[in-house]
């Protein structure tokens, strides 16, 4: 739906450069964050599949409400509901992987899953751009609703990964104890904070990418290719991640890549400063390619390491980790996005500043693992 942002602004009478429409992304992730805290304990009590299907139902309701919303505030409310539904599959996906795998095997599996997830943006903007050529922008929401219903039907073939004897009691005391186990583990906390920072930087780009490409550079027609290229690079590197883990080792790989990421982001800032905030379009593509190439090795591995000590409470742990990283990422993104000044500088500073925090947090958590 990013290519449709100009039409959405026009439909609701917003300024052509308004960032208010970015709320369509922000509130979705807020719903995604908050609802994970509910889905996790439910997945540990009733199993993975019932929670997955429940999430799909809420997801479809949010998509349908988005089609019908007559004002931007109501559209944002519908998108929040949409995010609440998406949280179900987010929690269940992590829980199923943790049910089946541990350690480096989990990280490699997570990389393949996230590679598929991240490859969707390769084609999504192009699909969205094609749809709005022949149909109103609200058709995009209908398209996603139909696609989600199809995936829900396909998911019936998935086996239940939580054995009956492993199901946990649904009580406030148990949920509290599970949450305490998550926040008291230094490795889990450190890498959850690191994941929050990288999520925040990623959301800054998601929120501002259409304005950067369309308004700063005046090349909105190239947006689907530009945005898809970043996703393709990230997904491709994620596929390589499993092989690199075998050769280098998970923890060593994460330490190395996070350090080089901060260096690359620092160079990004210096180059943007040298061009007064607007480097040549081709150079921006190169700089972002380097950053997103690092993301292909950072995003799945941070989450995998955070989940490693939590096998006995995978559902609840995945919800706490996912909710925290998403919600903190949304807050950080909102603060940075509000500083948009029609240059690339807020994006560059987000990558560098939040990358530095991610390096500090992951190093802090890694020391506990080594001990």
Account of the 3D structure:
- By secondary structure, the protein is mostly helical.
- It has one domain (2-370): MFS general substrate transporter like domains (Growth Hormone, Chain: A).
- The chain has 13 helices and no strands.
Using the coordinates shown, work out and report the CATH topology: Growth Hormone, Chain: A
Give me the count of strands. 0
Poorly predicted regions: none
N-to-C CA distance: 46 Å
The main sheet comes to: none
CATH class: Mainly Alpha
Overall pLDDT confidence: 86
Decide which structural class fits the backbone. mainly alpha
What percent strand? under 5%
The total domain count is 1
Number of helices: 13
Query: What is the alpha-carbon Rg in Å?
Result: 20 Å
Please give the share of residues in helix.
Answer: over 70%
Helix/strand order, N-terminal first:
HHHHHHHHHHHHH
CATH evolutionary superfamily: MFS general substrate transporter like domains
Question: What does the overall shape look like?
Answer: globular
CATH architecture: Up-down Bundle
Features:
mainly alpha, 371 residues, Growth Hormone, Chain: A, globular
């Amino acid at each position: 739906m990013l290519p449709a942002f100009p039409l959405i602004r026009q439909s609701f009478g917003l300024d052509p450069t308004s960032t208010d429409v970015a709320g369509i992304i922000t509130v979705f992730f807020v719903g995604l964050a908050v609802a994970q805290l509910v889905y996790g304990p439910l997945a540990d009590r009733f199993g993975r599949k019932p929670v997955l299907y429940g999430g799909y139902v809420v997801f479809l309701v949010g998509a349908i409400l988005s089609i019908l919303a007559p004002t931007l505030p109501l559209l944002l409310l519908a998108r929040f509901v949409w995010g609440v539904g998406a949280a179900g599959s987010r929690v269940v996906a992590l829980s199923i992987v943790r049910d089946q795998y541990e350690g480096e095997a989990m990280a490699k599996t997570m990389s393949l899953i996230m590679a598929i997830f991240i490859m969707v943006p390769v084609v999504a903007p192009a699909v969205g751009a094609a749809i709005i050529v022949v149909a109103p922008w609200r058709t995009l929401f209908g398209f996603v609703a139909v696609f989600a219903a199809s995936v829900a039907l396909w998911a019936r073939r998935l086996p239940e990964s939580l054995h009956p004897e492993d199901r946990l009691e649904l009580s406030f005391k148990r949920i509290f104890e599970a949450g305490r186990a998550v926040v008291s583990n230094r490795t889990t906390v450190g890498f959850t904070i690191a994941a929050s920072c990288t999520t925040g930087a990623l959301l800054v780009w998601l929120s501002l990418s259409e304005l950067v490409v369309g308004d700063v550079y005046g090349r909105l027609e190239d947006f689907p290719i530009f945005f898809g290229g970043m996703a393709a690079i990230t997904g491709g590197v994620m596929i390589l991640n499993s092989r690199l883990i075998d050769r280098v080792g998970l923890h060593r790989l994460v330490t190395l890549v996070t350090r080089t990421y901060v260096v690359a982001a620092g160079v990004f800032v210096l180059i943007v400063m040298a061009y007064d905030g607007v480097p040549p379009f081709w150079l921006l593509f190169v700089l972002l390619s380097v950053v997103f190439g690092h993301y292909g090795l950072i995003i799945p591995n941070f989450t995998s390491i955070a989940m490693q000590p939590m096998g006995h409470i995978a559902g609840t742990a995945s919800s706490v980790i996912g909710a925290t990283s998403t919600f903190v990422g949304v807050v950080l993104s909102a603060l940075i996005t509000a500083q948009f000044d029609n240059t690339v500088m807020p994006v560059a500073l987000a990558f560098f500043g939040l990358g530095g925090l991610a390096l500090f947090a992951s190093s802090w958590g890694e020391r506990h693992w080594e001990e």
